[in-house]
Structure formats: C-alpha cells, structure tokens
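Dear colleague,

Following up on yesterday's call, I've attached the two folding results inline so they're easy to grep. Please treat them as preliminary; we haven't cross-checked anything against experimental data yet. The first protein's sequence and structure tokens come first.
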Amino acid sequence: MKKALLFLTIMFMTMSYAQEIKQIPQINVSGEGKVKVAPDQVCISATVETKGNNAKDVKKQNDEKIDAVLKFIKKMNIPAADYKTKQVALNPQYDYEKKKTSYNATQTVEIILKDLTKYDDLMDGLVQQGINRIDRVSFETSKLVQLESEARKLAMKEAKLKAEDYVSVLGQKVGKAYTISDNTQVYRPQPMYAAMKSMEMDSAGAPNQTLAIGEIEVTANVSVSFVLE
C-alpha cells in the first residue's frame, strides 16, 4: 500500500512539474547581426597542366614549369609557410577513335598572399612562369573569429529589442533567455580573374583594373526564446 502511495505521489509531482514547465510564458524571436570588412589577404589556387603523348616527357615538362613557378613565388618574398603544393597528378587519357593514349599532368599550388598590393604582380608572374589554370581566388580576412563574435552580439541585441517591442504594449517585461539557437555564415567574394593581364593599358593610358574584391560579410542569425515577466 505504501509503495502504491509513493508511486502515485511521484507521478503526481512529475505531472505537476511538466505542466508547470509548459505554462512558462515565453516569446520566440529571431535576430540578425551583420559585420562587413575589407579583405586583408587572398588565397589563390593555381595549376600547371601539361598534355602530351609520352608520360615521362609530360611529367618532366610539368615539373620544370612548376619549379619556375615556385622560384618566382619565393622571389616575391612570400613566406614559405604561406604556399604549398596542394595536388599532383599524372593521368592517362585514351582516345577510342584514334586508339591512342595521351597523358595529362597537373600540379596545383595554393598561395596565401597577405600583401594585397602584390596581387596583380603575383598573378601576372604566375601566368608567365607556366600557370595555365586559376582554380580559385578567395579574398579573406585574418580577423574572422573577432568578426563572428561581433556579429553574434549584434544578432542577440536585435533579438532582445524585437522582444521588448512586442511586449511593450502588453504591460510585460522580457526576462531571461530560455533557449538560443545560432547559425553563423560567412560570405567570401570569389571574383573571376578574367583577362590575367593586370597591366594592360586602356585608351587613357592607365592600367586596367582586373577585378573588384568587394567586402567580406559575416552574418549571425539567432533564434531566442525569452521568458516573460
């Protein structure tokens, strides 16, 4: 009998507690924070690609070109820690019509350039030394962690301001945050390097600009449930 009474008491307390939780007055709002900044570095992924009928010759030619590329990068005074070989490949390609095998050698170098004033000179030099494929150009910021923090704070401030606006006409106050969901996104502009001739002169005698780097936008989106008082 005592066990039955204890069981009923526990069940009653559990149901009462669950009911109490469900009845907590809350308001659910969203907030967004945006921070924009000019890039202070660029990540370039560049490839030397060589094709031919003899695997050994194709690889040798590709190695010679990439050697010239690496020497040029070093000559640009880019720290060794800021560039590396990303991918090396030598693949056979069979032509079923001609019943002949050719070979395709590629080697990709990834470069992080922290002095954007050298960008055009670097790109021109890479092409002159044998780079024939620009796979990716991504302008970035070295202050990403700081910017993400600022964006999150702005998002939370907007969420709280929204909640206060809603309840101001109800005679209630916004209390503590009950739940918070965060989703931070980063937009990195990746312009197309179309001409690869940064010093080509226009009709006025001035060098043409090859691209506009834009701004990096860090966005934080939050969903917040506030307790109402």
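Below is the second protein, in the same order (sequence, then structure):
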Amino acid sequence: MFRAVLTAAAAVALVIGGAAPATAAPSSVPGAPTSVRVTGAADSATVTWGLPKSGAKIASWRVTVAPKQQQPDAGVDRLPASARSDRFGNLTASTTYTFSVRAVGSRGAGKAVSVRYTTPGSVQTVESLFALDGSGSVVRFPVSGTSAPTTIAKDAAGFTADDVGDVFVPSADRRSVVMYPAGGGAARTVATGLHLTADLRSDVAGNLYWVDSVSGAITKLPVDGGAPVALVPSAGTYWAVGRDGTVSAATFGTQGAATKVVSVSPSGKRTTRSIAENGYQYLSGLLADGAGNLYLNYFSSGASGASGWSLLAKGSSTPVSAESRIGFTYGATNGRALLLAKSAGWCAAASEGSPAGCTADKTIATLVTRKADGTTTERTTSGVTSEGRGVHVGAADEAGDLFFDVSAGPTTGLWRLDAAGGVAVQLSAGQFTRLLVI
C-alpha cells in the first residue's frame, strides 16, 4: 500500500545462495539472470536483475517470494521478457524474505538466482485517503490530522490508486488510462484502445480492473504491461477486488432467488457459488478484504427498510451475519476486517419520524471491527450523525480507522473515526465520493 515512510530504515539486502552457476545452462533453456540485487525500505522491496550470459531466448520472467503470506498469486510474479525489476509490498516487520528470479523460455525455465532482504523490526508509516471531490478532482488527504487535501487530477469521473501512490484516471473518451505519478511530474498514458467505465479499481500488486463498457466483462490490466484480460464475462450486479487480487462478482436475480457469486483468484482459478436467500431481501452491496473473504449487504424489501452485512468466507457457500444489531451504518473493509460505524438507534422506515412512531437517534455511537474468524471489537464514538437509511460505503486504513462521507443531516462532510473510538474528526465540510485508502 502507499505509505510515506517516516523512518530511515532503508537497506540493501545480501546477494546469497543461488547465484549464477559457473557453467552455462543448457542451450534449450535460458541461462541464469545476472546482477540480481534487492533493495528494501520498510515494508517493501525491489528486485533487479540483468540478462543471462548464455542460453535460449527469454519468453518471460518468473519472480517468487518466500514467505508468501499477504502476497498476490501465492508469491509468484510472471513478467514479460522486457522486465528487469519487480516490486513487492505489504512485507511483515522483522522477517527475512527470499526472492528468486529465473528466465523462462519456450522449452522451460533456466536456473534461479536468489537474494534475501530482512525487513526492519519497527516501521512508522502513513497511508493516504484518496477521494473524488464535488468538482470532479481526485484529492489526497493524510489519514491522520486535518490538513487540507492535495489535488492530484482535475476533471476526473473516476480513479484508483496503487500501493505506491500512483493515481490512475480514465481519459475523457474512456479509451485510455492516464497515470499521475506519486512523486509528482507529468501525467502519462499507460494503456490505450480500451472500453473503460469510470469505476477503476486496483489490488496491492498494482493491477487495474474495470467493467468493459462494451462486453460487460470484468477486465484486468496487468501491472507488468501485458494485454487486458477478461476475467468474468458478465460483471453481475456488484463486483469487488480484494487487495490480494481476488476478483468477485455477485448477481442477484428475482426476489427470493439465489445469489450467484463468481470469484477468480490471482492465479486464474475460478469458483462459482450459489447462495440461497430467505425471500425477503435484495443484494445491495459487496466488499472484499485481503484474504479472499467477501461481505454482502442485503436490503429488506419489507416495510422495515433494514440493511445489514453478512460474511461469505473464502471457500464457503453459507453467509453468516456480520452484525450484532440493526442500525444506520457506514461500512468498509481493510486487508483483514469489516468495519462498521453504527448509530445509537434505529427504527423501521414506516414508523421513523411519524407522529405515532419512533424518532431514531442517528448519532454514530459505535465503531465495530469484525475479522473473518469472528473476532469482534466495539469502540464508543460520538460527534457525527448518520444521514439515515441506505447502504453507505466508506474506506478503512490498516490501523482500523474508518472514513466516510455524510451527505445529509446536521453533520454533513467527510469524517474519520479513530480505531480506538472517541470523538469523530471532520476532515472537510465538502462532499466526496469513491473513498479509497491505500
């Protein structure tokens, strides 16, 4: 994820076992890469290499990392023949990682060269909150403090950002992706000839995703520069991209029909699940975490107007409730949990505000954090009032802070709830959409 590193803990890792052998690889496969090095800073590392001195023509590169936890595609990156570097993020503190690079030819892979990098024991980092403001500009806020936002791109209908902090925006004609570099500098076009929608998305590896405006397929643009790939022929009603690169689409038919969920893993494995419904609810939202788990929001078709989140764990076809009580809610996921900001009170739509009915206390009183294993924490909050009924999705950072926009009521604007609870902090009185923490 994009983090402004606040420590000086940069290091150059050792080149270790697996160095190029003295004898050349067989001519039927490429030789071992040369000058393999890894440099690291905080929770990221970049591997670089040179061409082999002998062997067959290179068709591609295969770079692996171990341990592979929290890495897309089980720690295996497949890169084009022109690649000479690969970046890995989301590394764990005080952990030694081994990176292996090998060239792949038409008849097989050559010898691997391995290098190691040990991450610092303590790293202070800062994520950023990105959003689209009311004028159509992509802006960036610090996730802590109340500093004014920085404008990244103007006149943008939509956007996404990668873990480095580069921002990607669809062109005005929806045929190209334009990148705004994290470090500043001129914007540049990274892909053309596309059929984009404004709803761009990304994963931790930097791959881009959208629903093709012609075919309706969820499409992936690989970070390695490869051609776009259609992952799911029909996007369905709702779709989500986990930070691990798992892409899921959920389709809800008629009331009472099963919800069909199609998921594609980073390695391309496709699974289809059918989830039976109780006949009184409609699918109204879909979120993903970083481990293949999904959270589905269902909205009651009856007079209550209630909505709530359910967990669909990786590999399961049975959703379980992710909420302990009904309330007016703002929700988001980070890499490991579902976060919900819930109001103190709630009442059915038919009775809310009516002379003989109830008047709900819409104060956001609780921040609930629920992990996929069921571990739940609740923190008391205050200072902001919900706009009311509906499915409201915000964004969350890895520390557990929740960000959301309130569009109506006495406390309109952009807000942050600290993971520890307490009084909510208003970041802006303006209106923002497409919140994203990276």
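For the second protein, one point worth flagging: The chain has no helices and 39 strands.

Best wishes,
A.L.
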